[in-house]
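Exercise 7 asks you to align residues with tokens for two separate proteins.
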Amino acid sequence: MGDAVTNPKPIGMTRPSRIHILTCLFTSLALLLTGAAYAAPGTPSGKWLAEDIDGGGVIDRLQTTLEIRDDGIVTGMGGCNRYAGSAKFDATTIKFLPMASTRMACSAAAMKQESKFHITLEKARAWRIDEARRKLILLDGQGFEMMRLSRMD
């Protein structure tokens, strides 16, 4: 009886396996690295979903995405085709460089939105983040809103 009081074992508790510990460690590391890559304050870095392109809205269920890394690498889905390229940005300005894209054919409406998306990216010259609404706003050279995107990550 004295041994049970000095060396109690919780009921139903077992030692975690090495696999369980490693899984937890790798999952935690992946979450930390993902957050570090896309959560830099004061940058447009992150994964974004287009809500409005040049005042015309977007097609429901057509995923037009923009992913910007801290190193300037840009990737995403135009709605029909995947694209990749780069951007140069500082605290308020941004310039998207020419993008490479796959060449799949989709509906005319999807292709029109994708084209409008890429043209708008080319014209963007400034950015700001609306933290309260979790939005990235891309602006033209005169400061007018050209595109509004919602944070996905």
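Second protein for Exercise 7:
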Amino acid sequence: MATVTPNFNWPVPTSTDLVRDGATAIEALGDSIDASLVDLKGGTSGQVLAKNSNTDMDFVWVTDAAGDITGVTVSSPLTGGGTSGTVTVGILSGTTSNLGAVQLSDSTSSTSTTLAATANAVKTAFDLATTANATATTANATANAALPKVISFNAQTGTTYTLVAADATKLVSASNASPITVTVPPSVFSVGQYVDLYQLGVGQVTFAQGAGVTIRSAGAVSTAPKITRQFGAVTIICTASNEFLIVGGIS
């Protein structure tokens, strides 16, 4: 008695079938194969076989859908392209005159015109520049401090004058035909600051203490020294808070 194949259930004769029964089974096998492969018939040139459903051996001939890319066209810096066969696309190397791909570099000393700096390289260069700038600023300040000072002047022509903060390191001139009183004020100058003053006119200059100020000098009156004569000069030095030493041509 005939049996069937395991996958498609096609009938096949067994070794115990009679010749008549075997012939019948072979006929049935042929019919089953023919029925199973019927979908392979037909089709035209260019068509492909596709599944028609989830049913086994259910196929249909269809026209293969052409892709919508018929060619690859490139422009610089891309290279290659084509309309058939294997298409290769590349990219030119970038230079100072051509667009293209460049390699990144962390170097801060390279002179290459084809490498591109990374953020790390830019940050490193920035830090080096910042340090160099700070060093240059310090050196400039040191150099300026070593240069000879240019004296600024403050010309006074009245018979009274009270020193101001802007007079520090200046040369104040006092010029009048009558006696002149110069007052040293409190809470204006810091320790170490000084003012130079000279008597330009014939009116003699006498120094006076502002409220809370103490003047010390080698003058006849220590707290109220006078400039000795016309063109005489003195230096008023702040030695402590509201304390001043006057030195020079005094009497």
